[in-house]
């Protein structure tokens, strides 16, 4: 080490000529060793021998086997400068790389272009000011410090977005840390040296702490932004955190993601690697262009040709050939990291060498890049033309150019570095010409990257300004909780509520003691204002709705309002209130969280022992319980109270009179609310409570053993005529006129909030929250609808001991927990009596766990084109049918789903929508699509009638131009990519393009001139779909979607933003219509025109849609329109790539009709071969291979009788792959099946239904076919294409059928 350091110091003090051999200067000691001992030589790096390797094949073998060769980093470097991917190994490296990868996808980098451009602009503006102030003379500028700052600023902006100023501080600290580490390099091999409290070691420790603190602050800030639903996925940190959260949620295991400390290490690596590489590359590029003016001129001419004086774009930068050649040559001559070290983890043979553990191999990349046997005798000369035919053709030796390493551990940020350098260089060339200053000394030296020896020499250029400028959740024995414990499924304790809900014994006692103060009446009194504010928000909305109905009664579905209200009261009114008061410096002990924390701290202080209080994780669990229990109880109580008052007008009147007597028109007060005597009870909130004895115990005349569960039937107790009388089922509040204890002659007969020590501690809060009838009723007679809903339209929805909810007419149901008369076990018995078979019902999730496991296992596989597709995309259903036969069922949560593949039964079900409704999980209907997708009966009929005009063929014809424009944007991009590849086939993954294309088309045809806002709606819908899919496995846990998890909050935020965007577009369109402007040439315009016409014809708004209805239909345009088209297009391209003869026939037909001209609507409808191809693709790769329906009453279908609660699963994918219908070649691509049309494709009616069937057939099928034909025709006009060797055939069904690994195809210009 001493010799190495002496030689390095000696050589670094010298400057060299440009023609000198660079490796002998920057790696002088290694050069001496090789010269003295030959190629097979080694040096001693402390106690470890380092073997010098410059042979490209050996370098390749080592770099491509990271599982055998690990990095050899000194501790100080890994711990203080970078960390993360730089020094992780094996499984941990794989996990981090997978999580970090999305941040460096080209599309994400494209979104960062603006930030990079802004950083560059700051520098060029400074230089421009300096040059302008020099009175026309050349201005000498030392560019190195500017480039160091620029690279730090770029990585701050692309790494941390709006937090880049904090990022600048990290950059400065990192720079200082690097210098300190370099000073200690010679001492690293002295055991424990870095722990000696020297001034440098103390400063290094201090810097590490500060970096940790700044980064932790940034990450916590970003967490809060994510909780608020703000957009944060446009920088490296945001994308990394999003990727991390997604991975954790997908696996339901935090260990699958990164800890906050690991995220911090990756952020440090962003800075270190990102800034060091970019500044070094920029610097040496400027040096070379200053020496070689001819290449500076050629580069400038290319930049001006592409951009002129405009801002450089991402796509344009990627097309710069000369600039790319120059940068590659600079990377060869001035390789940023000219040496990299590896160490075998076991004895291994490499080439003709056997390497034991303990030997390090030093891969001399710099020597490889300067080897005259590879690059020629002009190896030391600057000749960008070496790369004119690309990297692979620069030499005749493979792996001879690896500036960013190679193999699995190739630099993840290489594309970002190239974009940064190209952007900076392009903007400099637009504004300046430059040359070397006479004071410049050429003295490259290697620290971590190759840098100029700026401490000893000034590196300056003379700049001349050019003309190119750039602009800027039996009763007595409830009293014995020590003998009877709760029996909760894990999922509830772990994901919904936790805390007191499932704690027992000492831990429960501790928590209850700590939480009790938060529910003292005086504390609740202080919360009254917040509760009142929440209630006021709801009544204001209702008042507005009623006022807008011209004095007529306004129908309002109150359930969703009460769901939101209860959540708002428990969150904004109680917990979030604390944050605002903290910001104002006020007391923070007047909300539940504040009081809980105060109680916790006091308990710890009194006992001097942290164990007497709660840890932060326990506080979190209690907060989750606040939300779950608080919101579920309040919303259920409110709903049933309103229903009873709507039916019993006399009690509504008496309640209102009492309220007005106490409050008049004034705000209700806490004391006044507690004096209201008319109490309203009938619907028990938790009709079942379960307990389990902890040891053998005698209760009454029963002896209970451990593991026997006792089910306390509170609901039956409250409806027992022996206790309450023969009128037990009647609504008679007068039972409680003398209080609860006198309501019956039986003790403990009324326990809605449980009883004993574990009586609900939040009961007083719930009673305060339930608002009395509004003192100024927002609707006449305070009815929830114009007429009371008939009792048959309301059913109890028992939520496994949770709340009770209504079945709401006109809306879909979610396969309830014993809805109506049918419970899962009764349903199972009924089905088995008819010869149907399936797994026995399992509590809560049914077959969901098995289904998810099988799907995940199968989705990771690729298949052959000849394989049976349904076995791959619907494996669990296939397994069920194979095991139990065609007449089988599976359990989708508590609902049995019956497999149906018989075309006649499918036809019968689909043609009777009045008997078979869609059983959609709530979040899908409410957050993704809505509208026609989930409506039923009269409301569906009304919407369908109003929307139909938008999909008439003459209207679709008018949309052809918009569709063509969207397609042209894609084909133009592909054309540029193919043209830039020098006549060679260009690999393009078409899937992301088709996702974007389908979104763009539906934006244009849906919203016309407002398609830019439409693009944002499309992006939000895509994100919402991903979130819904993550929550699918939790949908059967009562109330899960109301728990304030990050995903649920983000979904809610997206819903609000979608509502806002769509409302804005609709309001804008309404104003345009009032001004008499034409707005009826897109889906929204035609829908609004149809809506207005219907309203005017009947003279009532009830005949049309409300603005909320229109919004739901717009969401459906996006969801259904984009998902179907992109799926159809991608599988069509894959099939035509596989079957070249059909590609040729399709192209010949397109050229016959259109030549090179734009395809027309009439011409597209006459394309027979293209239509045959699309139909065969729809058969093989049906976009929606499963449809689900549920009978609304007992009904007979075929030879089966189906009760309410059973779902029928229409297996469209299996129908389309049935060899009895389509023949033994069913899995083959044969468009000729459809040569005589759809009706003649088989001998079986209703065997081809890709767009469903019957009255609810997809309304947009013709639009989807026109879009697919237009895109396909324009692609065939310009390109021929084939499957890439990297293509893996792995279709998988999400909401539509998509390619798991994308669809990379090779394109040729036609």
From TrEMBL:
UniProt cross-references to InterPro entries, sorted A to Z: Cyt_P450 (IPR001128), Cyt_P450_CS (IPR017972), Cyt_P450_E_grp-I (IPR002401), Cyt_P450_sf (IPR036396), Cytochrome_P450_Monooxygen (IPR050665)
Cell location: Membrane
Keywords: Heme, Iron, Membrane, Metal-binding, Monooxygenase, Oxidoreductase, Transmembrane, Transmembrane helix
Protein name per the record: Cytochrome P450
Chain residue ranges for the region called Disordered: 771-790
Record's bilayer topology term: Single-pass membrane protein
PROSITE patterns: CYTOCHROME_P450
Membrane spanning residue stretches: none
Superkingdom of origin: Eukaryota
Family: Belongs to the cytochrome P450 family.
PANTHER family hit by this protein: CYTOCHROME P450 CYP72A219-LIKE, CYTOCHROME P450 FAMILY MEMBER
Pfam families recorded: p450 (PF00067)
Regions of compositional bias (Pro residues) in chain numbering: 771-780
